[in-house]
């Protein structure tokens, strides 16, 4: 077995162990997020109310950011506002104070995505019925350990939903 394949197997083992050891994320009222997808909507309705009902329990910066949301479309076929996720992330001004939802259409996005420490309130939102695939075929040998990931986030108040990340071997 080549050293590169051995390294990838080691990384996969670490991820599997992490997934087995850290599977439960808790809401503010300590009700675990259900593993069964069919129960997620009812859990969400019980635990995450409208912004107006949660303002007192949220960071004031988040409350302000959620009042003026911008949605931009990324489509691999070029039919959106942007063709790449990276271009959409470059759109908001540095230190912006409002939420930017980057709606990502189905398809493969082969790019290294970095959200720097000055680009706050970014949400990457994939199509739940046909989740986009993010892939970057760089290795730690090529880019170093810290810069070899498909997605790296240094910013505050980031979230990502309905995305698939693929590791190339």
TrEMBL record:
<keyword id="KW-0472">Membrane</keyword>
<dbReference type="GO" id="GO:0045490">
    <property type="term" value="P:pectin catabolic process"/>
</dbReference>
<protein>
    <recommendedName>
        <fullName>pectinesterase</fullName>
        <ecNumber>3.1.1.11</ecNumber>
    </recommendedName>
</protein>
<feature type="transmembrane region" description="Helical">
    <location>
        <begin position="6"/>
        <end position="26"/>
    </location>
</feature>
<keyword id="KW-0812">Transmembrane</keyword>
<dbReference type="InterPro" id="IPR011050">
    <property type="entry name" value="Pectin_lyase_fold/virulence"/>
</dbReference>
<dbReference type="InterPro" id="IPR012334">
    <property type="entry name" value="Pectin_lyas_fold"/>
</dbReference>
<keyword id="KW-1133">Transmembrane helix</keyword>
<keyword id="KW-0063">Aspartyl esterase</keyword>
<comment type="pathway">
    <text>Glycan metabolism; pectin degradation; 2-dehydro-3-deoxy-D-gluconate from pectin: step 1/5.</text>
</comment>
<feature type="domain" description="Pectinesterase catalytic">
    <location>
        <begin position="72"/>
        <end position="165"/>
    </location>
</feature>
<dbReference type="GO" id="GO:0030599">
    <property type="term" value="F:pectinesterase activity"/>
</dbReference>
<dbReference type="Pfam" id="PF01095">
    <property type="entry name" value="Pectinesterase"/>
</dbReference>
<dbReference type="InterPro" id="IPR000070">
    <property type="entry name" value="Pectinesterase_cat"/>
</dbReference>
<keyword id="KW-0378">Hydrolase</keyword>
<comment type="similarity">
    <text>Belongs to the pectinesterase family.</text>
</comment>
<dbReference type="GO" id="GO:0042545">
    <property type="term" value="P:cell wall modification"/>
</dbReference>
